[in-house]
Design a protein that fits this description.
The complex is a heterodimer of chains A (380) and B (341). Chain A is of the alpha/beta class. In chain A, 39% of the residues lie in helices and 9% in strands. In chain A, strands 1-7-8-4-3-2 form a six-stranded mixed β-sheet. Chain A has a two-stranded antiparallel ribbon with strand order 5-6. Chain A starts with a strand and ends in an 18-residue tail after the last helix. Chain B has two domains: 3-198, Rossmann fold (3-Layer(aba) Sandwich), CATH 3.40.50; 212-340, Rossmann fold (3-Layer(aba) Sandwich). A seven-stranded mixed β-sheet of chain B has the order 3-2-4-5-7-6-12, with helices on both faces. Chain B starts with 15 loop residues before the first strand and ends with a helix. Classes of the chains: A alpha/beta (380), B alpha/beta (341).
Chain lengths: 380, 341
Amino acid sequence: MPLSSPSGTATAEQSEVATEPLQAIRPSETLTKEDCLELFRQLYLARYFDVRLIKEKKRGRLRGTLYSSHNQEAILVGSLYALKPTDWISPIHRDMPAFFLKDAKFDWRRADRLGMSIEEVCAQVWGKVGSPGRARDNWSHIGSREKRIIHSTSMLAGTIPVAAGVVYADRLNGGDAVCLTYNGEGSTAQGIFHEAINFAAVHKLPVITIVENNQWAYGTPVELECPTPDVAERARGFGIPGLVADGQDVFDVYDKVTQAVAHARAGNGPSIIECKTFRAYGHGDHDDDRANKYRSPEEVERGRSRDPINVCRRRLQELGYLSDEDAGKYLAEGKNAAEATNDDFPPEVVEFLNEGIDFALRSPLPEAHEGAKWVFKESV
Amino acid sequence: MSAVAQAPAAPAQSVKKNYLTAIKEALFEEMERNPDMICQGEDIGRLGGAFGVTEGLQARFGESRVIDMPISEGAIAGTAVGMALNGKTVMAEMQFMDFISTGFDQIVNMMATYHYRTAGEVNLPIVVRGPAGAYGGGALYHSQMNEAWFCNSPGLRVVCPSTPYDAKGLMKAALRDGNPCIFYEIKELYRRNEISEVLPENDYIVPLGEAIVRREGKDITFVSYGQNVYHCLQAAIELQKLGVSAEVVDIRSLVPLDEETIFKSIAKTNRIIVVNEAPMTCGFAGEIVARVTTKAFDLLDAPPVRITRLDTPVPWVKPLELFVLPSVEKIVQSALQTVKY
């Protein structure tokens, strides 16, 4: 359900600009069969990355906290698929697959793509020198100017003003890049969320704020973070479109983000897209047990009942892109991901991640003295 | 008379420029020199800044390079990071340095750490500058010197000039340095005529991390920066009448700090008083004293002294304000005790 701009305050013309490109059209209907199957494949890839890391973490091989993206993969896959390679993104802690899914259509290994290689991402997770940041900050706090990925901090919503600055500079240089910033619903309570979107709206900057509303900000439910039923309603105060997407449906996410990207690229400014989803596990792996105390098993079961892989699978079957036999091949409906094995995933997915992990295991730890390096750029 | 007032007949090289004009010239010249530079801040465009430092800048360079920002120091600092990440050099003005607290997270967590986090891939040429300091009746929120916050955040240069020559030269050096810099301008010095001076015609910088001896002496060393340098110089004049010879070191840069010049001075005088107008506890005066006592202990004949603001906010009305701040008299009294030790 798209929310329109507040017509009472906008002129008819402004109102039209703000809302018309964001009506309920479905760009996903023009996707080819190959695109649809690729989206499906990427969902498996994101899920396998998560399942595998959970196992590695339990084996004690990883340092730091794992923030599972389980059940939220459609948001990353669908939104990234709507971008051009030269667009920017700023993922946060629950978005690890975004780093290697950016600019990954069809060929995940292409050397020149403007996304991270699986080797780089795995080296980061294992804390090795092969990480783009040489493992100086943890997990999702990586990025690359060259690949157009903004480095986040732990201060949520803090990348939105950075995104606004990035695209401001890009526009000055004659570029047409948009930036997708990922945020949780909890971070929309931060002042900087509003300060940054306000600036972006004033200058009609192409900043698209994805709100992954997974209902829980650590141990606090969404109704204690945001006073409106939809977080997307926050857009009204900025006179920009606020859309709600079904975060379990990769096609719906793709549709909404594609519309927002077109709107932004045409010079009409930012939007907020709230993707409704549910956090499958605890805030981080350290919180898995405690999470059972602040939310009921019934709520968790309900929240996980629409697995994005199943939602996508049904759609592909409806479209006739997937035979009944193929549909049941991997991670069959009802299969508990915790019990999944490599056989539950397409072989190319397993192989791709194995290559990354092999690289990470071979890559050395940084030397201790690097801890004191790069505080300052040496003056010329 | 400042250059802005266009003294008609005076040959250019003899025109004295004040502290504010020196900074303004640095910004104009760097904007001219570097087409990838952006200036942004509250009221800096149409108005030309609350104090007029950026007057005429937007008319010359346009609205897209000189941006009137919404009132959000967080957005000012955060967008500066984004612009610099994407290849720009950014001057971000804080209308008063007191207000920097509302942009704190973006500065200490996002900006200061970027080079470190990326193992050197990204460096951010940003100068966050603005008026600071007390003695003008600005009260609690228009008087602060909060430089210690940023000296305690690795990855930031911290600078505080005391003269027009230094203000211009340090501003240019900071804009070209490639690292984020917090640049404290002393608003009480902006238009102080006594310190106006003729600036070089040619392009010049004052390198970061080089202190300067403002006055030579042999009995005691005063180490200071900003407007307290002038309190030290005045105290040195008073002390000379009393037979005490004081040396005054103006550090100019806090990070990086030129320790050598300080140690060299103490090697001569064997006594040190550090003067600044920030509160004492965990302030930069304490840092200088710590470095002197740990690295040059043998040079000292007397305990080092800090003369700082009391550990209070800066009160509004004059007697209260002056009571809590360093003064010439406090420096003189303290120096007399220290030389007798």
